[in-house]
Design brief:
By secondary structure, the protein is mostly beta strands. The chain has a single domain, classed as Glucose Permease (Domain IIA). 11% of the residues lie in helices and 37% in strands. It contains one helix and 13 strands, in the order H-E-E-E-E-E-E-E-E-E-E-E-E-E. Strands 1, 2, 4, 5, 6, 7, 9, 10 and 13 form a nine-stranded antiparallel beta sheet that branches. The longest helix has 21 residues. GO terms for molecular function: metalloendopeptidase activity. Pfam families: Peptidase_M23. InterPro entries: Cell_wall_metabolism_enzyme, Dup_hybrid_motif, M23ase_b-sheet_dom.
């Protein structure tokens, strides 16, 4: 009897984990640019960057230390180091590169949608398990990991697949990395929602 109860409990646990993963993703959340309201940023990609990866650079002022905001509400699933940090800082912008994404944050937005924010300047301002509101600051722009200059590397994912980023209900146009491509967008991420 105890063995049967144990097997049943294990099957229920597996079903609770596996069944949601088999369901199709929900509708795309209304993502906003992950930067301060009213600021215009250049979004771009380049050959070898990987499809759908977006790098964000401000069109005015210094990139170092700019606030990075949650592009939609959700639960932080990762807040830490991806790869190694390197030693690029505002005081030594040409210091050695690290590997991977450096300081980063991943947020689960429900419906199998998530966003990722990489190359942050320092330890993220949030922790795994924390709920964040849209527009809440989660870190600051930096150049940790394998980064050549201060910027925010950003991704939207549906299930385990990277997809074209949408902001304010419109596609960014950054899809393939077969050529360099840039657009300028102004943030409407104006208040925590």
């Amino acid at each position: 009897m105890a063995l049967a109860a144990g097997v049943l409990a294990a099957l229920v646990a597996v079903a609770v984990i596996v069944v949601p993963l088999l369901l199709p993703p929900g509708p795309r959340p209304p993502f906003q640019l992950p930067v301060a309201c009213g600021e215009t940023w250049r979004l771009g990609t380049y050959p070898g960057h990987d499809d759908y990866d977006v790098d964000l650079f401000p069109t005015e002022g210094e990139a170092w230390g700019r606030p990075v905001l949650a592009s939609y509400a959700g639960e932080v699933t990762v807040a830490g180091i991806n790869g190694s940090l390197g030693a690029r800082t505002p005081d030594d912008p040409n210091g050695p590169r690290g590997r991977g994404g450096g300081y980063w944050v991943k947020i689960d937005h429900g419906g199998r949608w998530e966003t990722q924010y990489l190359h942050l300047l320092e330890t993220p301002l949030v922790r795994a398990g924390q709920r964040v509101a849209q527009g809440e600051q989660i870190g600051r722009v930096g150049s940790t990991g394998n980064s050549g200059a201060p910027h925010l590397h950003y991704e939207q994912r549906r299930g385990w697949q990277k997809v074209e980023t949408h902001f304010d209900g419109a596609p960014s146009g950054i899809t393939h990395d077969d050529r360099e491509y840039t657009v300028k967008l102004t943030s409407n991420n104006c208040a925590p929602r």
